[in-house]
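EI: anyone free to look at a 284-residue chain?
SC: sure, send it
EI:
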Amino acid sequence: MKSAFTVLPMSQRFSLVAGGTYEGSVTVANPVDAESDFSFTVTATPYNVVGDNYEADLANITTHSQIANWITIENPSGTLKPNEHTTIKYTIHVPENVPSGGQYATILVSQDNSAQSAGEGFSVATTLQLASVIYGDISGSLVREGTVIENNVPGFSFDPSIALTAIVKNDGNTHSDAIFNITITNKFTGEEIVNESRGGNFSEIIMPETSRFIAHRISNLPLLSFVHVNQTIYFNDVAYTSEKDLLICPIWFIFLSIITIISLVAFIVSRVRKHRYKKSARKI
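SC: here you go
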C-alpha cells in the first residue's frame, strides 16, 4: 500500500450543555494512489493523556473522558475504493446532571490489513488507526487556572536549528490553549528573522489537571550570528516571557579560531625568539 488513509478534521471542539444533543462528522478518504480497497470500522474511545509528553491513552474511562460513552456512530463500518471518501456521522447525547468541565474522546477509524506480506512466505495482520479528537466543554463552573512552570530559551548553539522549550501546567477542570509568540532579532541589523508572521506563532492544548512539555524547533537561522530571542507564552490571559541573547557558532568555526590563535601565538613567539637571538648575536 503506497499511502495510508486520512481522517479529517484532526480535532473538533464542542460547547456542551447537560441534557443536550449534538451532531458531528468526520471524513474518511482512501488516497488516489492506494493500491487496493480497504475496509474500516469506526468506534468512539476515551481520550486521556499520560505524563508531560502527552502519551495518548484511548483505553481508560476517566472523569474527563466519560463522553466516549455518550457518542453514537451512525455508520460504524464501510469500504472505500482508491480515490473514494465518505462521511461518518455521530451524535453526542449529554446526560442530565453531569458536572461541568472538560470531556474528551476520539472518533477512531481502524483499517484491518489482514494479509500484508512480511517476506519469506509469511504474512502478518496489521491494523492502521487514525483518530479525530473531540474536545468538549460542559457549561457551568468552568475553572481556568494554571501557570507556566518553565520557559526556556537557549543562550548558545553550535547549530542554526534551535529548540525552545516550556512546561505548562493546567490546574483547571477544562482544557486551555497555551499561545506561543516567538521573536528572533538580529542583534546587528535589527531584522526580525522569526516573528508572528514568520513561523513564530503557534498554540498547544493543555488538558485539565496535567502538565505538558512543549518543544518547538526553529531551523535555518544564520549559521554564524548573534541574535536576541524572545519567547512569550499566553496562558489563561497571563503572559510569561523569557528572553536571551543567543550566539550561534558552528563548531568548525571554533576549531578554526583555535587553530588560528595557536598559529598566531606560535608566530609571535617565533618572532620574539628570533629577535632575541639576533640581539644577543650582535653583543657577541
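EI: Residues 146-248 form a domain with the Immunoglobulin-like fold (CATH 2.60.40.10).
SC: 👍
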